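An example makes the point: we print one protein in full, the chain in one-letter code, the fold tokenised, without further comment:
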Amino acid sequence: MRRFFPVHIPLACALLGMLIVMPGAAQESDETGAPAGTQPSSHAQAGGIIARVGDQPITLNQIDIMLNSSAMIGMTIPPPGNPERNRFRLALLDKIISANLLYLDALDKGVDQNPVYQHDLGRYAESTLVTMYRQKVLIGDLPVSDEEIMTYYDRHINTRETPFTKDVGTAIEASLRNRKYQARLADLRERLREGIQVVIDEAQLDPAQDMSRDDAAVVARVGQSAITWSEFRPVLATPVEPGSVEGRVAVLDDDIDRRIMLQKAQAAGLEDDPRYQAKLNEHRKVHLITMYRGLLTEQLEPTPDEIRAYFEKHRDRITIPGARKIQMVVMTAKEDAERVRQQIESGEITIYEAARDYSIDPNAQKTLGEMGWVERGTGFPELDALTFSLSLDAIGGPVESPAGWHLVKVLEIREPVFTDISQADTWRKTRRMMLEERMNEYTVNLRKDRYKVEVYNEVLNRLIQEVVGEPPTQPAAQPEQS
């Protein structure tokens, strides 16, 4: 039986196919992108539905959130108005479609009932509630008044060299707010535990007694509740376990604070907070997709023989050939080229001057002979052989090609990589390419055979033109229904 979660947040993806969900509000919408029962405003159209995968809508807002996120993590995104930006949108749309296909497939196969998934979801829900309670209730808003800012400026900064400006005021405000935050953190535990009796039995935390300690042994009492050794022991499973009683007391104190904040957050009704629900729904979907991708990867894992065969078949795609960054002087006669080489080697002229003054290359006046990177096998055979026989900074030639007689200097060398399947890096790259192809094939089959996919190219083009103010996309295919 299908189990659908109420997901009201956009799905986005980052590098290497890992998918993340960007938070955001959503409403019931019709296929024009307008909220049901309303006239389609410009704002509503900006988040309009441009595709569906089963019952999962995809909006233009999701695409543009991904574009902005990609720019933040260092990917080069074409600027607004550039047609390439629309092709980028189509590529991102394809990734969101694939993610939603995996999501629906995971639901159908009951992966959401996996005990590990349920445990992870529960831990995330608790952690989110604790964080919200700490920020919203214990710490709260930290206002900084104009009077506080000016008082700080007059006492600590006021000089001719640093006149008061808007930027100075903003920096002072941030500093004062951070001080208030640290002050509240200092007495957070005292305020949190007010009226609650907390007793820690340090004798039950002695590492020397771990092997003989009963699971039911009480390590602490919080009000009327007891924390047993079996409950606390998993909390100690940290990368660096404290090996002393004092270290364990510190960990237990933090865990007690977490338990109290969780109870108070639930009592305060934070589970009904829309921001909490959005975060939980976001994590529910993305974590299910991530887990399912991991399970599929195990099923699609190639054998060693398959990896070797794939490398041999696709060697040209995997291997990165060696390259040389070169500088070149091209002349009409061999004798002239030999004479210029002697002048360069004797120090009479530089190769830059030789290229500028003697090269017949029409671009030499601008480039001074610098040709950039060239790969083995991409030039005339004799010239290629000379270029890749030279050591760094060496000058070779003259050698003849149909263009004339060449002198060549190697400025930089890039050695070939991924050339041998016995190398660990080559093996990993080949395996990754195989898995990506198999995963793509799996999602293509889901699209063909299992779930209906609709892409509304007309809506996408209209929204881009009317709302974003950019040229329309050129659809990769007609609006697809499968």
Notes: The two ends are 22 Å apart (CA to CA).
